[in-house]
Amino acid sequence: MSAGLAVQLDNVGFGYGEAQFHFDALLPAGEITAIMGPSGSGKSTFLNLVAGFEEPHGGTVRIGGADMAGVPPWQRPVSMIFQENNLFAHLPVEKNVALGRAPNLKLGEADRSAVAQALQATGLGGKEKRLPHELSGGERQRVAIARALVRERPVLILDEPFASLGPALRAEMVEEVRALHRRRGMTILFVTHHPEDAERLADQVVLLDDGRTIATGPAQDFFGAAAPEPFRRYLGKPLPSPG
Ligand SMILES: Nc1ncnc2c1ncn2[C@@H]1O[C@H](COP(=O)(O)OP(=O)(O)OP(=O)(O)O)[C@@H](O)[C@H]1O
Question: Which stretches make up the ABC transporter domain (predicted)?
Answer without folding.
Answer: 7-235
